[in-house]
Q: What sequence folds into this?
């Protein structure tokens, strides 16, 4: 192992070879194989079968996938994540960047702001869901009451086909902001002070500083935030389950919500696994695209 | 500026200057503060609603501070098996976090500080597995747990959560930068790899230990999909799954309770993770920025 000396020095034990290392790793690797890897392989098999919990699996080859392509509820769920993505990803990115720029300026009470922007991320989907069902209540919800001051008539955020996806997205942006915010903040704090000061001395205006000094420095993090958020939005489930249970009429459902209802309500495990693998394929394609994009920049 | 107070503008400027601000910062600060308040509002509204009488909740008055307060909602919450759910959640989260930290530290230490063939490949496999969304393995895992007869059990809640690649990553990062001199003294005394790890390296890994623990604990405390799927028994529910049923949506058993009980329920649920976050904020933020900025 001729790795650079600064990264990996000699072994801690001074020996050439620590066979015991395998044992150290095994404590983690055994549950990892059983609970992280095996289920995926098993799931790949189940997807090609017809299987309710009783009885034996029945090999049906590609039937489940064929069914999924013709299933309008599945199609609706996959369409919906496109719209979730179009709302939540830009929302989290833009607000997260703004929040990070704001906190990084160290205005009065910036520590409170830092705490608040991250706090929703640490509470569970149940909290997000119930609090926002209340916030977005059509008649008495806080959001509609304040919008009412501006003459906006009450919006049925979670109870109408047109709005339900947007209502869930608003709650999701509130919930998900923390990660993007922290990553942006870390990137901003890495910008050398001399650089911004030099820009001030050179008479750069604020928008110029943002455009030519700050944004180029957060570009790598920006693409990472977008991809992480995109992947997590593709997996949207808990808040959907708590807030609307996918309704009304599937208007706020998501692939994982659909997988859940196929497996739990209809007990069709084979079909549920097939839809899960289709979602997995979408995520893998996007993750690889992300890696390629990052490599291009580096 | 007002007549008679000619120095007000200058004083204002001086005040801003002392904070490193220019006049143009004021509107930015105001807009930002508004966003911060919007971000805080749902929490404040949650707590405020939880102390209101049910009759004061569904009204058109926006009462941020309840005119009259009651703890009845909290009493109503505890009429559900909330204590039992809380115990389940604690058992699950504590067991999982402890195992995650120990196994993660051992694997992270070996991958950073011990020499054996295939070390780099093993780590690469761990990292690559992050691409697999847990949701894909959830259905087959559920089938397996039902077949084994472990549905609605602590094994079912705990086992699938103990192999967390994040903890290996955090510990490996830490041990890569671990000063070799610390190990040398123990090595001279003839300590083997187990003693080096247990009595030298692990006790000094406080920072990654806390970072991993707070994040893994929070993840587990909030875990939703898996406990929702694998628990069929009311008594084995975890807190988030149990309290989710408080949603006063059409068809739920708490529809008539209204939002005051639901808000008391989610306040109870969010206090542990929020408290952990407020006191150990630094570790959350450090852990997350180290954990995400890989490669």
A:
């Amino acid at each position: 192992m001729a790795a650079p000396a600064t990264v990996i020095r000699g072994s801690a034990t001074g020996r050439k070879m620590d066979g015991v290392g395998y044992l150290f790793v095994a404590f983690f690797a055994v549950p990892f194989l059983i609970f992280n890897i095996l289920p995926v392989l098993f799931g790949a098999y189940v997807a090609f079968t017809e299987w309710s919990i009783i009885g034996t699996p029945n090999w049906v080859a590609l039937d489940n996938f064929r069914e999924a392509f013709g299933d309008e509820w599945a199609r609706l769920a996959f369409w919906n994540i496109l719209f979730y993505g179009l709302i939540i990803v830009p929302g989290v990115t833009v607000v997260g960047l703004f929040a990070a720029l704001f906190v990084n300026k160290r205005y009065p009470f910036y520590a409170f702001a830092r705490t608040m922007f991250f706090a929703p991320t640490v509470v569970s989907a149940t909290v997000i869901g119930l609090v926002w069902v209340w916030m977005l209540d059509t008649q008495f919800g806080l959001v509609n009451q304040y919008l009412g001051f501006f003459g906006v008539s009450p919006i049925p955020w979670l109870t109408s086909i047109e709005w339900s996806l947007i209502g869930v997205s608003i709650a999701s942006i509130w919930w998900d902001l923390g990660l993007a915010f922290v990553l942006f903040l870390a990137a901003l704090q890495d910008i050398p002070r001399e650089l911004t000061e030099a820009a001030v001395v050179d008479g750069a205006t604020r928008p110029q500083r943002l455009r030519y000094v700050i944004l180029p420095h957060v570009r790598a993090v920006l693409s990472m935030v977008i991809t992480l958020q995109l992947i997590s939005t593709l997996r949207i489930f808990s808040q959907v389950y708590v807030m609307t249970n996918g309704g009304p009429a599937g208007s706020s459902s998501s692939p994982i919500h659909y997988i859940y209802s196929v497996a739990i309500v209809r007990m069709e495990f084979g079909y549920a696994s097939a839809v899960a693998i289709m979602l997995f394929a979408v995520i893998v394609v996007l993750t690889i695209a992300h890696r390629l994009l990052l490599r291009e920049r580096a | 500026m007002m007549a008679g107070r000619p120095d007000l503008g200058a004083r204002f400027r001086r005040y801003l200057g002392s904070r490193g601000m220019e006049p143009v910062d004021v509107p930015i600060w105001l807009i930002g503060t508004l966003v911060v308040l919007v971000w805080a509002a749902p929490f404040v509204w949650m707590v405020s609603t939880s102390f209101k009488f049910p009759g004061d909740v569904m009204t058109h008055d926006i009462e941020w501070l309840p005119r009259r307060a009651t703890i009845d909602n909290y009493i109503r919450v505890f009429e559900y098996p909330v204590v039992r759910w809380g115990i389940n959640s604690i058992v699950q989260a504590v067991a999982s976090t402890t195992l995650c930290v120990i196994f993660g530290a051992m694997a992270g230490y070996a991958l950073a500080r011990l020499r054996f063939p295939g070390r780099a490949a093993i780590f690469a496999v761990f990292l690559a597995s992050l691409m697999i969304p847990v949701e894909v393995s959830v259905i087959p895992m559920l089938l397996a747990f039902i077949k084994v007869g472990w549905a609605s059990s602590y094994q079912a809640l705990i086992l699938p959560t103990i192999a967390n690649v994040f903890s290996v990553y955090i510990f490996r990062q830490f041990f890569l930068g671990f000063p070799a001199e610390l190990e040398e003294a123990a090595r001279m005394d003839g300590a083997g790899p187990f003693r080096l790890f247990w009595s030298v390296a692990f006790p000094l890994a406080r920072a990654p230990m806390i970072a991993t623990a707070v994040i893994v604990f929070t993840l587990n405390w909030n875990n939703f999909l898996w406990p929702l799927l694998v628990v069929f028994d009311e008594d084995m529910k975890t807190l988030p799954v149990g309290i989710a049923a408080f949603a006063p949506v059409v068809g739920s058993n708490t529809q008539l309770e209204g939002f005051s009980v639901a808000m008391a329920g989610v306040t109870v649920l969010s206090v542990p993770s929020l408290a952990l976050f407020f006191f150990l904020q630094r570790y959350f933020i450090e852990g997350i920025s180290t954990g995400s900025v890989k490669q």
Chain B has two domains: 8-75, 76-292.
